[in-house]
Each structure stands twice: as C-alpha cells, then as structure tokens.
Amino acid sequence: MASPNKPSSKTDMQTLVDLTTSSRALLTQFITSLSSDNSSSTNIPANPPNPLQVLRDSAKLLKAHVTKLSLLLLNKPFTPSALCNILREVTNVCLPAMMSAVEICSADIWGALIHHEVVARVRAVMREMEVCVAEVADTAQAEDKSTGRRPSEGKSRDSLASTGVVWEACDAVIELESLDVGGLAIKRAEVYRDMIKDAIEELKEWGEDVDDDDEEDDIASDEDDVEDMFAAANKMPKDQPELRQLLDDSVGKLKKINMLYTAITKRRLKTFGPAAARQVVHVKTMDELVDRLKQLPEMVDELANSFYELDEDEAKTQLTAMITEAEEAIRLVKLSWEGKEDEFTAWSTKWTEVIK
C-alpha cells in the first residue's frame, strides 16, 4: 500500500485504470455466460464441494472486499495500489469461485429449481459488481486527470449506495445455503398459494350481486351513474343461474386447492431435508412438483377469464384441467420421501375424493 504521505505514482494510477478495464471485461464475460445458462454436468470433477457452501463463502468474502473498496474510495489519501490489491482478490478469487459453484450446481444433479435460482442470484451479483467497478474506474480517472482533486460528494454517495446494493445481492446468494432445495420450494409454493387466494377473492367479488335500485336514479349524479354502469358491467349477470352455480362450485374447489398448498408445504416441502436434496430422484420429483404448483395459478387465471367472458363451457373445461393438474401434484408426493405411507397419504386420498 502506498504511504499515506506519499502521492500516488502515475504507474499505480495507470495500473488501477487498466485493472478496472480488465475487471469489467471479465464481468461482462461472466454475465454473458450466465445469461445463456447452459447447464451441464459433463465438466464437473469427481467429488465436488457443495456449491451452495462455496457460494456462501465467496459471497461473504466479496462483501468484505467491496466494503474495503468503498472505504478506500471515500477516504484520503487516494491509494490506487491498495485498490488494485482488492480488485485482484475480487477478480481472481471471489468471482471465479462463484462461477465454479454455478457450474457444479448443475440442473442434472441439484435440480432445475435450485440451479436456475443460483444462476439468477449470481448474475445479480455480477451486474452490481459491474457498477461498483465502474465507480472505481471513474474515481481513478478523476483523481488522475485533476492531479489530486477528490471526486464530488455526489460520487461518494453513489459509492456507498452501490456498496449496499452489492451487499444485498451477496446476501441473497448467501441465503441459498440455508434454504437449499426444500426451503426454496417452500418460498415458491407460498407465492403460488397467495396468487390463488387473490384469485378466489376476485372471483367472489365479481360474483356479488349488484344493487340496481331504480329509485335512486333520480338523485344520483352523472358521475355516480357512470360508476354504477361500470360496476354492473364488471359483475356476474343475474340472469345466468347455471353460470352462478358453476362459479360457486369453482370457488369451493379453489379453496380446496389453496388448502392443498398448505398441506403439501407442511408435510412434504418442510420435510425435504439435505438428505433428500442430495438424491437425484427426489430432486427431479421436487422439480416437477414445483412446476405443477406453478402451473395451477396460471390455470386459475384462465378459469377466471372464462367467467369474465361468460363462457360457461370454457369455464368447465378449465376447471376440469385445473383439478387434474392438482391431482397430479398430489400423486407425485403421496408417499413420504422415504417411500412410506403417512398422514398426508391418507389425507390426500380424501382430498381427491371431495374435489370431484
């Protein structure tokens, strides 16, 4: 590190500028690779380390290095040699370790669910690091061209802000190790369940009766008339009792499907521990399960659209398809991860009977 009382040499400054250029090029290469997301287990070495643990450790180290970078950019004297040392650690150790972990965490072995999440979160880190390195480059160029002039206060605030964003991205990567496959599946299932719950409320609201008391017409303002007209247009017509019955039946079945998410989460996702997550057959089952849990809210949207368009036949078709999809989700995990019958097995049998 340069002496506090000794001005930075032109060589140190130029080295820093050159290093930021090469670092940004490396980050661009990594981001491009992550965007293509070609998952393959062909190049994975024998007995590889746990990629989630590698990501945890490299992300923690990256947070520490980014903090040092921020402090060096904000405090005098400006020391390009110290910045170079940290950037080399980032580009030679932290970032390559993350990319190696992505490769090790192949969809063939760890499953598509965790693999795609790893790719997305590591890509977010790389993008935020692009901004961070760009700020180091801007500061270095400002120092070099102004012969010692410090960057503006606004630039300092940008440095602090970008450090915080990198920290957030790293924390998301670190979280993966504690989540593992089961924890991530739980988070996804909760999102999908809430989407179905929202759809139920929307359908119930759409099916509510519209008060069209003609006695109020004489005193209603023009604006109120317009609002009432739109409200009536967005409600179920009163002259279609069969559609009304189908809506009530559909809402009841949607509530049962919503209940299914809670049961699967409690009895299957929360019991999907590290032992199950290291068995490819179980990981593949989890991938298919989460995919079906994802499909259901999309099918519910199609069902709702059928009602809004007053298409009774299409609504029946969508309802049947939705129930079939839910039954397939149950079938995947009717037995425990140990292949045994349990309370959920019996419950799922009853659920299949009452959903008909």
Brief synopsis:
The chain is mainly alpha-helical and 356 residues long. It has helices at residues 10-36, 51-74, 80-104, 107-110, 112-145, 153-206, 222-233, 241-269, 274-277, 280-308, 312-332, 343-354.
Can you describe this structure?
With 356 residues, the protein is mainly alpha-helical. It has two domains: 169 residues, Talin, central domain (A middle domain of Talin 1), CATH 1.20.1420; 168 residues, I/LWEQ domain (Up-down Bundle), CATH 1.20.1410. The protein contains twelve helices and no strands. The termini are far apart. The N terminus is likely disordered.
- Summing up helix and strand content along with how strands pair, one would put the structural category as mainly alpha
CATH homology superfamily name of the largest domain: Talin, central domain
The name CATH uses for the topology of the largest domain is: A middle domain of Talin 1
Helix amount, in percent? over 70%
